[in-house]
Design goal:
The chain is mainly beta and about 475 residues long. Helices cover about 10% and strands about 40% of the residues. Strand 9 and strand 10 form a beta hairpin. GO terms for molecular function: actin filament binding.
Length: about 475
């Protein structure tokens, strides 16, 4: 039999990345220098939010998408946190509501005015206290309105019902810091990666661990559900310290379906999955490139397509929701790349090359829209429902929904019979060292202030002495 090359038919094999021109970027932004492994960026069809470098607390910018170009240094900020902001996420159903979490142990909900900020915003519509240590992650439920998940350095995941402003459930199965959270399509399952090198699939309402993988050969960092395929993809590090990805069956985490080494670099790999096109994007922290693959239902499961290359390293990436894409340009994905060295946010569009200017139905199937499928009470009672789908053919219409914050008093936070604010776990060695160095810096600062005051007192005493000994006084 003669050898024949095997060609794989795919409408996405020629997808290419196109960076926006300089005038369509966001310039002059003091992007945070925090080393926490997050994107520090969130985007929706109306606003771009970026965590910024600030003194005396945490802040982030919220910029209307049409306001491109250079951002003024005194541009208004959201600056109500007392510690560094570690994560921000837009509400998928109410586009002017954003959640943030911080080192000050709080989660806060902010309502951005129509047209963006005109002055600094310091008052949140809702302040959520339940974690005893800093909060590193926040995630909105994909199908239920006003349900928010937060993961803290106290190893707990709290589920907040924003209709009442209280935590209603607690997931307490982790033994170390939670690195990543990802939901399946209907939000009935939560996958987490943890610093204890374990991958877990959890039923969020009961907190029960359905599947657990102890990843010794593949140290997991990030996880993402691959839509409704009942598969998970993780990025991590092999035992030879090379970056690799692994594909898992969500119902059997005993062994990965495949493992594939990417390269020998050290930066964290962020995975992004587009369920509509079945495309996977891999972007490394500190890299300039973005690799993309197509996910199949049969072996080898993963087919490499191409790579977008850029000399500028990325600190993080925001992703535009589907309804915010430009369908007339056959855009199937859009990143907002944080370039710290230049203070620049650069949009990168992933485009399917097509000659026809008509709507391409084969690359734009029905996609999850901006209407919630469930109320918080329905979801908490055990109901699961797929997201409400919308067509991108007619174009996206902005809707004005209102978030009503509950009125409540600060009190003890009791979940599963445990007062979260009273049961504080012992501090780790790193936290104690951090506190020690902060106290040392504070002591040095106070000593410098005292020495400056002492010098000023001596100068005044000398001036007084000279004044008394002057001829005029004699």
């Amino acid at each position: 039999m003669s050898w024949r090359p095997q060609y794989r038919s795919s409408k996405f094999r020629n997808v290419y990345g196109k960076a926006a021109s300089r005038e369509h970027c966001f310039d002059g932004i003091p992007i945070t220098k925090n080393v926490h492994d997050n994107h520090f960026c969130a985007v929706n069809a109306r606003f771009l939010a970026i965590v910024t470098e600030s003194a005396g607390g945490g802040s982030f910018l919220v910029i209307p998408l049409e306001q491109t170009g250079r951002i003024e240094p005194n541009y208004p900020k959201v600056c109500g946190h007392q510690g560094n902001v570690l994560d921000i996420k837009w509400n998928p159903f109410i586009e002017n509501i954003i959640a943030s979490c911080s080192e000050d142990t709080s989660v806060r909900i902010w309502e951005i005015p129509e047209g963006g900020l005109k002055k600094n915003m310091t008052e949140a519509v809702l302040e959520l206290y339940g974690h005893s240590r800093r909060v590193g992650l926040v995630e909105w439920h994909p199908t239920t309105n006003n349900i928010l998940f937060s993961a803290g350095y106290d190893y707990k995941v709290l589920i907040w019902n924003l209709d009442i402003g209280e935590p209603v459930k607690m997931i307490d199965c982790h033994t170390d810091v939670i690195l990543c959270m990802s939901f399946n399509t209907d939000g009935s399952l939560l996958a987490t990666t943890c610093k204890d090198k374990k991958l877990r699939v959890v039923e969020p309402r009961s907190g029960r661990v359905l599947q657990e993988a102890s990843c010794k050969n593949h140290r997991v960092n990030r996880v993402v559900f691959l839509g409704s395929t009942k598969r998970l993809l993780t990025t991590g590090v092999s035992r030879w310290n090379t970056r690799q990805i692994a594909l898992w069956d969500q119902e059997d985490l005993s062994m990965p379906l495949i493992e594939e080494e990417i390269d020998g670099l050290s930066g964290l790999l962020f995975p992004f999955y587009d369920a509509d096109t079945h495309m996977l994007y891999l972007a490394g922290k500190g890299d300039g490139n973005i690799r993309y693959y197509e996910i199949g239902s049969e072996k080898p499961y993963l087919s490499y397509l191409m790579e977008f290359r850029s000399p500028a390293p990325q600190k993080g990436l925001g992703v535009m929701p589907k309804h915010g894409l430009d369908v007339s340009a056959c855009e199937v994905f859009r990143f907002y790349k944080l370039i710290t060295l230049k203070g620049l946010i650069e949009p990168i569009s992933m485009i399917v090359p097509r000659r026809s200017e008509t709507y391409q139905e084969d690359i734009y199937p029905m996609t999850p829209g901006t209407e919630p499928a469930l109320t918080p009470d329905e979801w908490l009672s055990g109901v699961n429902r797929d997201p409400i789908l919308m067509s991108l053919k007619e174009g996206y219409k902005k809707t004005s929904k209102i978030f009503k914050a509950p009125v409540r008093e600060k009190k003890s936070v009791v979940v599963n019979g445990i007062d979260l604010l009273e049961n504080v776990p012992p501090r780790t060695e790193n936290e104690l060292l951090r506190m020690f160095f902060r106290q040392q810096d504070e002591i040095r600062r106070l000593k410098d202030e005292l020495s400056q005051k002492d010098i000023r007192i001596r100068q005044l005493q000398l001036e007084l002495k000279n004044l008394r000994n002057s001829p005029k006084n004699n």
